[in-house]
Structure prediction request, 381 residues.
Amino acid sequence: MRPILLGVAAAVGAAALTLTSVPASSAAASYPTLKVTRVVGGLDIPWDVKPITRGRLLITERSTKRLFLWTPGHRKQRVRFPAASVWAGGETGLMGLAVDPGFRKNKRFYTCQGGHTAGGGHDVRVMAWRFAKNPARAVFVRRLLTGIPSTTGQHGGCRLLIASNGTMFVGTGDAATGTNPRNLDSLGGKTLRLNRFTGAPSKLNPYYTSSNRNRRYVTSYGHRNVQGLAQRYDGTVWSAEHGPDRDDEINRLVDGGDYGWNPVPGYNQGVPMTDQSLPGTQVNARWSSGAPTLATSGIAWVRGAQWQGYRGFLAVAALKASKLMFMHFDKGGAFVGMRTPPALTRYGRLRSVTNLPNGDLLVTTSNGGGTDSVLRVHPNR
Ligand SMILES: [Ca+2]
Ligand SMILES: [Ca+2]
Prediction:
């Protein structure tokens, strides 16, 4: 593991250079121009979009707490959904979305959202639903995981990923509470792994045998605000997170990894995003923005030969920087370079990136005021 970490440190140091879009791959690779089509419009801060069967899409909106169904050839429609049970505030609301691999039969999908707790407070939680039609509606199945911390709604996470082995990953935020990321008994500032049917912690987790309920869910810690999760072709799971005023990060997750965010005392954001001075070993980012931040958010690995040079790159949506970056990491996970296609620099803030079965990407905008869209991106053909 040590040689890999040393290699990564070099890549992070070179990151600022790559913002000017250096050639990212071998000289032989060619990069097709990209075509962008507005698929769904009239949205307000869509947080996530996922395909279900027959080319249809489910879309969450963060602050309005609306869930939409889009059907090819038709307008979007509201899905009946208990929005009143969602707590929304600040950056928290109706957020991450995952569709069960067995959706065709079991019609299940999942949300990560703000919720109301028994004591009159609120948290962030992962919910399981069953999709029913005529009218389109979300039928409650179960609360998979509650008690992810929320305060004002700042740094609320929350991205979902169902990995190829069927395990669900949850990427959380630190809720702007300095002690959360390094506290293994808090679900904040973590990546978590659980059984998507029962909500039980995954037996693969490093602290699975802990006597503390929360700790059993923890896969990795020391994160600030995980906004993107994606699994690479080699099975590794990667995350994206926001830095404070510098150092957004792309991380490759390892079981039990400490990602080095520990903003104490209080909420002291002057500390490094990966603070190597902390006890033990901190896992360096695979890519870091340097200064300023770009607000990296959703991520997806690019699949399909039609993408030519972009194939196998990590597509990274940026909110503040208002672009989609295609990052090249080599087989060992070291950052090589990135490309920023001009076709995706004219839609304002971009939040999520989603793979479609045919390899196309869906990208959501996040400009507010009911002006937002789901964009479909593919190489010109
Ligand atoms: Ca870090
Ligand atoms: Ca250390």
Remarks:
- The domain at 11-379 is CATH 2.120.10.30 (Neuraminidase).
